[in-house]
Amino acid sequence: MSVSVPETSLQLQSRLSPDARLHLGLATVPVARPAADEVVIRVEAAPVNPSDIGAMIGPADVSRTRVERSGDAPEISMPMPPEAMPALAARVGPAVPAGVEGAGVVVAAGSSPRARALVGRVVATSTGAMYAQHRVAKVDDLLVTKDGATPAEAASSFVNPLTALGMLETMRGEGHTALVHTAAASNLGQMLNRVCLADGVGLVNVVRSQEQAGILRDIGAEHVVDSSTPTFPEDLTAAIAATGATLCFDVIGGGDMVSRVLTAMETVQAAKLTGHHRYGSSVHKQVYVCGRLDTRPTELANTFGLAWGVGGWLLTTFLAQVGPEVVGRLKDRVADELTTTFASRYARTISLREALDPEVVAAYHRRATGEKYLIAPQS
Amino acid sequence: MSVSVPETSLQLQSRLSPDARLHLGLATVPVARPAADEVVIRVEAAPVNPSDIGAMIGPADVSRTRVERSGDAPEISMPMPPEAMPALAARVGPAVPAGVEGAGVVVAAGSSPRARALVGRVVATSTGAMYAQHRVAKVDDLLVTKDGATPAEAASSFVNPLTALGMLETMRGEGHTALVHTAAASNLGQMLNRVCLADGVGLVNVVRSQEQAGILRDIGAEHVVDSSTPTFPEDLTAAIAATGATLCFDVIGGGDMVSRVLTAMETVQAAKLTGHHRYGSSVHKQVYVCGRLDTRPTELANTFGLAWGVGGWLLTTFLAQVGPEVVGRLKDRVADELTTTFASRYARTISLREALDPEVVAAYHRRATGEKYLIAPQS
Question: Which residues does the UniProt record annotate as the domain Enoyl reductase (ER) (chains A, B) (predicted)?
Fold first, then answer.
């Protein structure tokens, strides 16, 4: 069954050296023999997510990238700010493979019937080390595509789709009926809009420019508010009143956005009260911070009563909490709606070698809204 | 049964007039006839809690108190800062009775056997309007004392005892095993220490002076850290490591205390990790803000990973959430340990008239640690 599997695979790796330089390079690694319940995927497409950039480059200075080697084992390096080194102490030393998720074709399988049944199928996974030509993965960790989806279509089957669905699961599980999303024009934000439209869930989209507002209105978003306008507080409050949102997923993190959202929610809830209530509305208002576009501290004003919560939200923690049954249900939905609700768009497709080109690194590192890159390891 | 019940009762009331003046006065109100499941309490003792001061005076300027009337219906008034008026709009107009909790002797009862069985007993309640000579209350809302407890001993049976027990219920319900408490030298803080010592729960006491640290050490507190010392971050981290605390009840609210506690907790949890973990420890760290000694915004630095939460915690919300069965169990414990674990101390006992003396108002308004006042409405 494994005739088409080479013995080695090129793999993109990231390494932090003790002299505070971050190295990105292509290494040749052996392709393991699959265990009974494993398959070998010939990886055809893997997206460059913001979380991938964070893991592989972190706070390193991409504007000062230096080419260390070209040829068979190309490598670039860039300086890591000294003040970032203490927190990265455990990262110094070994090279770690990059690329959380991706998709490809199963070219070999272990001995179990369920593994063997997948040979030739297009599958996606999020087990990491996907910026590679081949990847061995467990059958349980796969999403098996339907109806002839291509690897490029399946490449982003996990991070964004499960985050969008996870947000709605969290919303329902905690008794909310509508939600607010900040930085809503991103790939994830557009996907969340499609899911909410499909499920009839009210969604308040907070964006930072009229251009971003246009992107969302074009895909049918009903409630779009622009934080760069002077009427933002009133617009936000009106949209929250229209949807009844008491939950927000925020990717800005720093500054006063969290506080502004909670204050708008409390304004809406307090307006429903009769008489004086010292502690404000008793309706719980929640913000989950799942990104840090603004790295300043989060500032919470004392303007939204006492029934509130702010916390971190991390996809892997959510998936571990809800357990395999719920995760399976969510993955099934992603597979069913892969080319519609959960479609991703890419600004550019690059090879593994191009992913180490200093100019290309600078481009995908910018993370411009809608400018997502796709790595095609076979090209 | 109601021979000893007068037809009227003096009641301390608070009123905000449209000209931005807060009025405190004694009014003569009728004592209602008790319904079947009600009793009439001759109120003997009612504490002046910080929450009572907040409800009855709020942000009014007590340093500019003016005597409006003396005699049978004494009244004082003080200016309310204009900037506080919008949030208090619904408070303008009617006089509202003051005093959340208190205790006294049942002097009359409704027709039901369970109400009649209480005549002559010392009971406590937290139904409000307790700064009064008499108060009608439902049997279900009473805590019936045991073993000859006096009204003064029973006066603070609700707010602090149920808050301390509620904190431990929340701790257990959310899977934590130890906790941090800020402003720990308060009456509540000392009570929480006794509960934690009795239950074998690790408690980190954060205080703001060596004097406060001494108060706690004197009552057997094991982990006391002083935020006014330069070694506070290390001391806090060490105490959190020793106890394993992952939950904090904070009454400071503003500034960076919440962030410092979360950071210390994350430092302790991250030290247990092996290798590099980009998002830090996955152990959830929680702070509940249940006071606002510092009214500045809460500032959350980006230094404690992604497994964290901050939220409001309000006793009444907690009691509503856990339901009558749990509340009944907690009240039983308070009654059992009223003069030991849940004993309160008062700096001074005052009459209803003294509660309107400008100098006395200024004194109890200061809310100095350990300086709690008790109102004795019959004196």
Answer: 17-375
Which of the listed residues B317, B334, B360 is the one where a domain comes to its end? B317
User: Does the residue A322 lie in any domain?
Assistant: no
Of all residues in chain B, the one with the smallest CA distance to A283 is B317
Q: What is the DSSP string of B220-277?
A: T-SEEEETTSTTHHHHHHHHHHHHT--EEEES-EEETHHHHHHHHHHHHHHTT--S--
Same domain, A59 and A78: yes
Contacts of A299 in chain B (CB under 8 A): 297-300
Q: Closest approach of chain B CAs to the CA of A108, in angstroms?
A: 32
- Is B363 in the same domain as B290? no
A-B CB pairs within 8 A amount to 88
Final residue of a structural domain among B275, B302, B317: B317
Residue contact A312–B309, C-beta within 8 A? yes
Q: Using one digit for the tens of pLDDT, what is the confidence trace for A275-287? A: 778 888 999 999 9
Q: Does B273 touch chain A (CB under 8 A)?
A: yes
Nearest CB to A310 within list B55, B277, B309 = B309
Q: Does B253 touch chain A (CB under 8 A)?
A: yes
Tell me: the pLDDT tens digits for B38-78? 999 999 999 999 889 999 999 999 999 999 999 889 999 99
Give residue B271's Cα distance to chain centre. Answer: 36
Q: At what angle do helices B187-199 and B210-218 cross, to 10 degrees?
A: 40
Q: Kindly state whether residues B42 and B112 are assigned to the same domain.
A: yes
Residues A145 and A16 in one domain: yes
B259 touches A at CB < 8 Å:
yes
B81 and B169 in a common domain: no
Name the residue facing A302 among B277, B297, B317 (closest C-beta): B297
Check whether residue B352 and residue B274 sit in a common domain: no
DSSP assigned state of B345: -
**Does A219 contact chain B (CB < 8 Å)?**
no
Q: How many domains does chain B have?
A: 2
Complex prediction ipTM: 0.87
Min CA distance, A284 vs chain B (Å)?
9
Using the beta-carbon criterion (under 8 Å), do B310 and A307 form an inter-chain contact?
Answer: no
Three-state DSSP at B377 gives coil
- Assigned token pair, A287: 């913000």
Kindly state the tokens that stand for B134: 């008499």
Whether B306 and chain A come into contact, CB under 8 Å, resolves to yes
Do A171 and A309 lie in a common domain? yes
Contact A279 B306 (CB under 8 A): no
- The predicted-structure confidence for B101-158, as pLDDT tens digits, reads as follows 999 999 999 999 999 999 999 999 999 999 999 999 999 999 999 978 999 999 999 9
Is B279 in the A-facing interface, judged by CB distances under 8 Å? yes
Residue A329 lies in a domain: no
pLDDT at A369 over 80: no
Cα A184 to its chain centre, rounded Å, is: 13
Structure tokens at B303: 């230094």
Contacts of A269 (CB under 8 A, 6+ apart): A246, A280, A281, A283, A285, A305
Q: Torsion angle, CA of B314/B315/B317/B320, rounded to 10 degrees? A: 170
Hey, are the CB atoms on B297 and A90 less than 8 Å from each other? Answer: no
Which residue range(s) make up the domain with B76?
A: 8-156+344-375
> pLDDT by residue (tens digit) across A196-234?
999 999 999 999 999 999 999 999 999 999 999 999 999
Residue contact A277–B312, C-beta within 8 A: no
The CATH code of the domain that includes B193 is 3.40.50.720
Q: Is residue A116 part of a domain?
A: yes
Q: What is the overall mean pLDDT for chain B?
A: 94
Q: Do B302 and A299 touch (CB under 8 A)?
A: no
Chain B CB within 8 Å of residue A270 CB: no
pLDDT of residue B1: 46
What CATH number corresponds to the domain at position A132? 3.90.180.10
Q: Does residue A328 lie in a domain region?
A: no
Q: pTM of the predicted model, to two decimals? A: 0.90
The answer to whether residue A144 scores a pLDDT higher than 50 is: yes
Q: Both A146 and A166 in a single domain?
A: no
In this prediction, residue B169 has a pLDDT band, given cuts at 50, 70 and 90, of very high
Q: Does A314 touch chain B (CB under 8 A)?
A: yes
